[in-house]
Amino acid sequence: MKMPGLFFIWFLCICVCLPSAVLGNGNGYVLDKPVTELCLNCLCEALSECNATAICVNPKIGTCGIFRITNDYWVDAGKLTINGEHPDTEYAFINCANDPHCAADTIQNYMKQFNQDCNGDGEMDCHDYARIHMLGGFSCEGELPYFYQSKFEECIENYQEQGFE
Q1: From CA 34, how far away is CA 12, in angstroms rounded?
Q2: Which of 14, 50, 154, 162 could form a disulfide with 44 if both were Cys (CB 3.0 to 4.6 A apart)?
Q3: Whether the predicted pLDDT of 6 surpasses 80
Q4: What single-letter DSSP state applies at residue 110?
């Protein structure tokens, strides 16, 4: 698997360096972030190969953005928005899901809400977050789609080989 290199650096800057003041919702800001940047990157790789052109313009046709978020997922995560947009506007979901920073914070909120040990190994880690993201907070013990699981595991293994945890 090719490592994203420059994209990874860009992604980390988007997720870590941008001021969170541009991100808001009626429930406050994302302060406690359980999912690491490396884990977010592997989710992105497994879902869309971090293809930033994988946007959507109509949430009724499926998933949106590099993390392939659904409207229901976004609602469960607290309806985060960008640039102070009201969460009930017509394009609030689309704008957030297509924005890497807002989408990453949506995942953080979702994982805080549904944080659980999905694979029964006694830990809550990136493997559990991959399951929660794909299967949902109430059915994360199920089988992952083969392509998603293999891309995710390959990404995690590549980072571990490079000395990242």
Answers
A1: 15
A2: 50
A3: no
A4: H
Provide mean pLDDT across the span 42-50.
Answer: 95
How many of the other CB atoms lie within 10 Å of CB of 110? 22
Cβ partners under 8 Å of residue 129, min gap 6: 34, 35, 39, 43, 107, 111
pLDDT, tens only, 97-137: 999 999 999 999 999 999 999 999 999 999 999 999 999 99
Q: Name, in order, each residue with C-beta under 8 angstroms of 163's C-beta and a sequence gap of 6 or more.
A: none
Helix ranges (DSSP H) in the chain: 6-12, 37-48, 71-76, 92-97, 100-114, 126-135, 146-161
Give residue 82's identity as a one-letter amino acid code: I
Express each pLDDT in 133-165 by its tens digit.
999 999 999 999 999 999 999 999 999 999 887
Angle, helices 126-135 vs 100-114, to 10°: value is 100
What residues contact 155, with CB distance under 8 A and at least 6 apart?
A: 1, 41, 42, 45, 46
